[in-house]
Design goal:
The complex is a heterodimer of chains A (271) and B (352).
Chain A: E1 10-19, E2 22-32, E3 37-41, H1 48-55, E4 63-68, E5 71-72, H2 78-82, E6 85-88, H3 100-105, H4 120-132, H5 148-161, E7 166-170, H6 178-195, E8 198-202, H7 206-212, E9 215-220, E10 223-228, H8 230-233, H9 236-243, E11 247-251, E12 258-262
Parallel strand pairs in A: 3-8, 3-9, 6-7, 7-8
Antiparallel strand pairs in A: 1-2, 1-4, 4-5, 9-10, 11-12
Helix pairs in contact in A: 4-5
Chain B: H1 15-48, H2 56-63, H3 69-104, H4 111-114, H5 116-130, H6 136-157, H7 164-188, H8 191-202, H9 210-237, H10 241-246, H11 251-273, H12 279-291, H13 298-317, H14 327-345
Helix pairs in contact in B: 1-2, 1-3, 1-13, 2-3, 3-9, 3-11, 3-12, 3-13, 5-6, 5-7, 5-8, 5-11, 6-7, 6-11, 9-11, 12-13, 12-14, 13-14
Chain lengths: 271, 352
């Protein structure tokens, strides 16, 4: 898709992020490997969503830089960035009555000029995005009539219609049952495999993160505790340090990736 | 209205999506077309009816300068400016309402609720009663009042960006504040003064003069052009700030631009006709209902505002409901029940 595949690595370089003068992340470095799936996990309020928002330029940096290749993201025109980095934020609003196809077509915004109207190329891209997410039969349906799983697929279709090489997702599986969680992660894995899209997502579910990520980032109180291959990163020590939780790590019988089996107080090892 | 055409793989890619897009466009064209026909019919009626009723042919002829002196005077000096004013002012309110509601993502956001109309009233009434001004100075003062209130809301609502709900709540506060001042001014004025000042709290297109139409037209067209430029960003903006930013929209710039445009439209319209109740609140809701496609519906809302205002003015002027009343009263009488119905049935989503 892009002519120079070498320069589209998204990288945080000493970023400082916070709210109203309260610093959440103080000088964090992180690289999202190009063409891989990165999952960011960590306890509540560890700053993982804030970090993703900072990387996506949805939250202003108080310090440091976010780089796309060798370019400072904050100096890029927003529309240009939106043609490279697509984001599915945690909260999205669907206007009343909006149809699936119309919503997905809004993903074409960064590709259109001031007076730009939808062309047949846009129609083809929207159709492909609907097909990729299995929502083509819903094209004419109002979004509010759809189930949570369908809706999330439609929002992802909108991000796909943006045709970006990097896709960032903030807790995309929240509010979905376990089957729809797997469906969605499979969809992202296919996207990564077939198009080489760089995927980075904040996830809550450790075991799913371990299954689907090439690169697992474990965060705690605004810092990266460990990162790398899930098989090496997800140890009981790391889980204890990040989540303050005793857990056994066993191989996932299905995927062979680490499976975190938490103990909790009820099954605590007597000391 | 839903045409669920099965997607067959035999068609070239994008066909189904394109036909949906065309269907949406056809619906918009239909709505605007019907509004245009309604406007033409209402305008014809407005030119024909009065103390001396004219045939449609004579009325039209006179509007274009053909006919005897009496016809020309009645149509060109009295009736045409009123019809033109109703259309322009109505379109301005309708467009402003759509901009407010789309930008603030709140179906209750409108100059009536936000106190911007009240600000215009207060400006005009202050000029009339406190300073004894008249004519153009009163209109300018209404414009100033609306702008001042809008800026004040802005000042108090701005916290590292403009947040919708705070903007609306601060606006409601200012609405009451202006209302109180207004009542106080009217209460201490003598009867005759109060009666003429009262017109500025109701809204009427009866007194818009020939010479003001050109200014109104130029202003509304200019601001409508700005709105058209901003309208493309309204679609992404409706999905939430994060989504809009992720799609490449300069959220704060678009929001400030849209609100300034809307304030300009309201200030201009109220300086000519006073705060005509409910048009800005109801027109976008009507437009959204008619289109039912989740788009910002700016053009349709402007059209709905024009039709509504012209119809209300005709109804009030010709005592359709048994009494003669200025347009602002009629729109209030129609708008309030509509608002209640809107709140009762609500647009599926919560109003936050």
């Amino acid at each position: 898709m892009n002519t120079s595949p070498a320069d589209l690595t998204l990288r945080a370089d000493g970023v400082v992020l916070g709210y109203d003068g309260r610093t959440v992340i103080d000088g964090l470095d992180l690289t999202l490997p190009q063409g891989r799936v990165t999952a960011i996990v960590g306890p509540n309020a560890c700053g993982k969503s804030t970090l993703l928002r900072g990387l996506a330029r949805l939250h202003p940096l108080s310090g440091g830089r976010v780089l796309l290749g060798d370019r400072d993201v904050s100096a890029m025109p927003r529309k240009e960035l939106a043609r490279v980095v697509g984001v599915l934020p945690q909260s999205s609003i669907a206007p009343d009555g909006v149809r699936v196809a119309e919503l997905v077509a809004r993903g074409r915004y960064p590709h259109q000029g001031w007076f730009g109207h939808h062309s047949s190329d846009d129609d083809a891209v929207v159709t492909a995005a609907l097909a990729a997410t299995g929502t083509e039969d819903l094209a004419d349906r109002p979004l509010e009539e759809l189930s949570g799983g369908q809706r999330q697929r439609v929002w992802i279709a909108m991000v796909l219609a943006q045709q970006t090489d990097i896709v960032l997702l903030d807790e995309p599986t929240t509010f979905l049952d376990v089957r729809h969680q797997l469906d969605l992660l499979d969809l992202l894995a296919e996207l990564n495999k077939e198009r080489g899209t760089t995927v980075a997502m904040v996830l809550h579910e450790l075991n799913l993160a371990a299954r689907y990520a090439d690169n697992l980032v474990v965060m705690s109180s605004g810092t990266v505790v460990a990162q790398g291959d899930p098989g090496e990163v997800l140890t009981s020590e790391v889980v204890r340090e990040a989540f303050d939780l005793d857990a056994e790590i066993v191989p996932d019988p299905v995927s062979g990736t680490p499976l975190v089996v938490p103990r909790g107080r009820r099954h605590a090892v007597p000391r | 209205m839903t045409t669920t055409a099965p997607l067959t793989t035999a068609l070239p890619p994008g066909t189904a999506v394109r036909s949906l897009r065309f269907a949406r466009r056809r619906r918009l064209t239909l709505v605007l077309g019907v509004a245009l026909v309604a406007l033409a019919a209402l305008a014809t009626a407005g030119l024909m009816l009065g103390d001396s009723d004219l045939t449609p042919l004579r009325a039209f002829g006179a509007a274009f300068g053909i006919g005897d002196r009496g016809d020309l005077f009645v149509v060109q000096r009295l009736r045409l400016p009123r019809v033109q004013a109703a259309i322009l002012v109505g379109a301005a309110f309708g467009l402003a309402g759509a901009l407010f509601q789309g930008t603030l993502r709140n179906p209750l956001a409108s100059p009536d609720i936000l106190g911007i109309g009240a600000g215009a009233s207060l400006g005009a009434v202050t000029a009339l009663l406190a300073f004894g001004l008249s004519g153009f100075a009163v209109a300018a003062s209404a414009f100033g009042g609306a702008t001042l209130v809008a800026l004040a809301i802005w000042f108090f609502a701005w916290r590292r960006g403009l947040h919708s709900i705070r903007f609306v709540l601060v606006g409601v506060g200012f609405s009451y504040l202006c209302g109180s001042f207004l009542s106080w001014l009217l209460a201490r004025a003598d009867d005759r003064e109060a009666a003429s000042a009262l017109m500025w709290t109701v809204g009427s297109v009866a007194d818009v003069r020939d010479g003001e139409i050109g200014l109104l037209l130029a202003g509304v067209l200019t601001l409508a052009l700005v709105a058209a430029l901003l309208s493309r960003s309204q679609g992404p903006l409706a999905l939430g700030d994060d989504n809009a930013r992720a799609l490449g929209v300069h959220v704060d710039a678009v929001r400030v631009g849209s609100l300034l445009t809307a304030v300009g439209l309201v200030a201009l319209a109220t300086s000519m006709a006073g705060p005509i109740a409910f048009v800005a609140l109801v027109s976008p809701a009507i437009a959204r209902r008619l289109l039912d496609d989740g788009t910002p519906a700016l053009a349709a809302s402007a059209a709905a505002g024009a039709v509504l205002t012209l119809a209300a003015d005709l109804a009030g002027q010709h005592e359709l409901f048994g009494v003669g009343a200025p347009v602002g009263i009629v729109t209030g009488l129609v708008g309030a029940p509509y608002l209640l119905w809107l709140l009762a049935t609500n647009e599926r989503r919560n109003l936050g």
